[in-house]
Amino acid sequence: MSRKYLLLILSFGALLAVPSVIHDTFFLRIITEAILWIGLAISWDVLAGYTGYLNFGHGAFFGIGAYTTALLMKLCGWSFFLALPFAGLAAGALAVIAGIPTLRLKGAYFAIATWALSRAIQQVALVMDITGGPDGMRLPTFLHPDFFYYLMLGVVAAIFALYWFLLEKAPFGLKVKAIREDDQSAMSLGLNPTWIKLQAFILSAVPTGILGAIYAYWITYIDPASVLGDLVTDQAVVMAVFGGLGTLIGPAIGAIIIYLFKTYFWAYLSDYQVLYLIILGGVIAASVVFLPNGLWGTISGYLQTRNAVKQKPVPQEKIDKGVHHV
Amino acid sequence: MSEPLLQVNAVTKTFGGLHAVFQVSFHITPGEIIGLIGPNGAGKTTLFNVISGFYAPNKGQILFNGQDISGKPPYKLAVLGIGRTFQVVKPFAGLTVLENVIIASFARHPKRRQAEQHAWMILETTGLADRANAQASSLTLAGRKRLEVSKALALEPTLLLLDEVVAGLNPTEADRTIELILSLRDQGITILIVEHIMRVIMNISDRVVVLNFGQKIAEGVPRDVAKDSGVIQAYLGEAPQ
Amino acid sequence: MELLPQATVDGLLIGGIYITIAIGFSLAYGVMHIIDFAVGEWIMLGAFLGYYLNLWSVLDPFILLPAIFLVFAVIGYLIQPLVYRVISGKKGNPVLMGLVFTFGLALMFRGAALTGFGFYSHSIPSAISQDSFFIEMGSVFITIPYVRLAGLLYAIAITLVLHFVLKKTDFGRAVRALSQHREASGLMGINAKRISSYVYGIYVGLSAMTGVIIGSIFTLNAQMGGEYTILAFFIVVLAGMGYLAGVPWAAFLLGLVQSFFLIYLNPSYTLMAVFGILFTILLISPKGLFGRGV
Q: Which pTM value belongs to this model?
């Protein structure tokens, strides 16, 4: 366990030093975006892997964060940091509205409804005047790659830490897992499944909206295709599923691999961008069939079985005293 | 006679026009073990689901400690002090045995550390402590049934509803479970038990309620009920246990 | 006001087509408990096969229907064991994995179609594409294009055939038994795997065939799938998941919503309205309009 922490802290430290080492803005941009995708993949996994509900409209929450920021900054003349929390709020409010009727039901309904929701919002953004329709919106420019790198790193690290605490350490994590495993049993043990699922949905949506806000200010131009399009959802799904559902590290690894692959692919094979969809779909389908626990789940499962041989049983006297901690 | 802990008043539950449970009434006084028996499809599990809040009754009323609980959701009843097991066991398969019980302990001990300590205590009582770190999915049927009981117990219930926790166990395991049930009663927990195995019901129950085709056909101490002609008839064709 | 009859007729004509999509989808759900996110993609692929077959053979799309059904029924039959493997897996959450899997399939199909067929929209010409007949009653004047009428008749015919198969044949009884009591029917000696494969084949074939009809009435392109997937979900949820008898009503309702938005309001808001209705139904009666879903 402690080795895992050390690794995390070390990589965070290394990431802090990146801008002082890499002065090439192109590479800095790639790393910034990779970090963004880590955030999007883990926030999707909060609901999918931990809670067992597939949000096929994850992009809608990203997009609503981006559009909220753009609208507040352009129409109300707010500063970015004033608009940022409202981007999170808007995404959270959308989660509440979409979640209340659907989270009472089986996961299939939720998957369908969130997908339809994202399509509907896409359409609204395309036809409304205030959002600029298909032309999208331009935000006040702030060209400062280092600033955005640190902002993205800080926010994603904070999201990661928050999820780590809530899902791996605090009671909340066990509660959502209980609902994922068997909601009837969870209900008979005093847990209100709809309420807990709604909390998980909000926990997934708010950071996604905030990431959308940062993305919008960073790229300075948003349109329905870039922030509300299916690709945001598709990529988050493939990253989490390929990396390993129900963990934080898995989707983060998945995000890095898939994002780097995409960057490479689009740079060298830009004429065949649609091929990328085939690959995304293929990776999802193949992961489900051949790596149902994802890359990380498979690796850590292998490590666990290897360690299990060495593990000592719990000493009887500790059990008797009732003081044993795992 | 003390105030009843649970009062079931003329409860009816219908599914698509069929009466799964029809006008059933009985009560449980604190400290009792009540056996609920009847042939297959008699409505025992449905009645369980009504009492534990999984179904709302179509008619009738359920009082727990004098409070009307009919139609309240299961998670509220759990907090009020009604614990239940499921006939088809429902472990949180992907989690460890300990985690399973910690989740149940949160109802009384919201802090993780206290919940964990409490869970260890429960596992000790139910004899699962040595399997605490195993995946729940790795347990045998006997272990899973024990885990069901452990989870329900972790709620610190005043009323415990046990749905077929002995059926399917070998005689040694069955005896251990019966011992456990009796010791829980001695700790002051009131128990309503559904069981297929007559020997178990007749030995441990203070009183027995018999259902057939959704209706109560008899109630009383085991010895009298066993002689009841209606009960014998209801069981005709069923293998004697 | 004189647009009202036309809007209604249009709605019913469109709605008919959706029946076939949703019935296949509902059947597959009933038997395999799978929500197939690739339903729209099957429609799209069927439409493209129809388009190219028509170009190559110059046969009318309506004549090509049986061939297209057959091709895709075989594809569905062959792909089903893979789907079955995913949804009956021991590890993880099979239902969740089934959803993810078909989501992946849908992406693959869409990508493949974009790669192979490009971004352009086409339509499949039929001999009856250009003609309509008219109904005139006083001030009311209704146009009915033959091709739309043929689409509706096709849908009705398919519905009747399926109804007959499900009610009267041994295969139909087995399908119904399977969708009602999965475990019990396994004990009764019904080969669940085999029947699931047939049903999946029928579902994929039906969807593809309907794609051809859609392609000859409207247009087809590689990105059309997503919209039809949503519409299929909409109908199935409105009807009640797995409740076949509710499907026609839900399909007609969707057709009416679409045609009214087209004629009276802004068609760009159709999806929003569809979502609004879906949302309301889920909020008030998650088992569908008739409360009979599972």
A: 0.90
| B54 touching A (Cβ < 8 Å) | yes
CA–CA distance, A45 with A64 (Å, rounded to integer) = 19
Query: What is the ipTM score, two decimals?
Result: 0.89
Show the domains of chain B with their CATH numbers.
6-235 (3.40.50.300)
* Residues in Cβ contact with B118 at an 8 Å cutoff, skipping those fewer than 6 apart: B105, B108, B109, B154
A262 within a domain of the structure (yes/no): no
Query: Which of A277, A290, A291, A298 should we substitute to test contact with C (largest number of C Cβ atoms within 10 Å)?
Result: A277
Confidence of residue C189 (pLDDT cuts 50, 70, 90): low
Locate C53 and state its tokens: 């077959």
Contact B87, B194 (CB under 8 A): yes
Nearest Cα of chain A lies from the Cα of C196 at a distance, in angstroms, of 19
Alpha helices in chain C (DSSP H): 3-32, 39-57, 61-87, 94-117, 146-168, 170-180, 182-187, 192-217, 225-239, 247-263, 270-284
In a domain, A159, yes or no: yes
Averaged in consecutive runs of 10 residues, what is the pLDDT profile of chain A (326 residues)? 77 82 85 95 95 93 96 91 96 94 86 88 87 86 88 94 94 94 93 95 97 94 89 92 92 93 80 80 89 86 72 48 42
Domain range for A173: 23-227
Instruction: Give the DSSP letter of residue B131.
Output: G
Look at residue A290 and tell me if it is in a domain.
no
Q: How far is C84 from chain A (nearest CA, A)?
A: 11
Query: What residue segments make up the domains of chain C, in order of their start?
Result: 25-223
Report, as an integer, the average pLDDT of C45-60: 88
How many domains does chain A contain in total?
1
Which of A174, A187, A314 is nearest residue B75 as measured by Cβ atoms?
Answer: A187
Contact B106 A177 (CB under 8 A): no
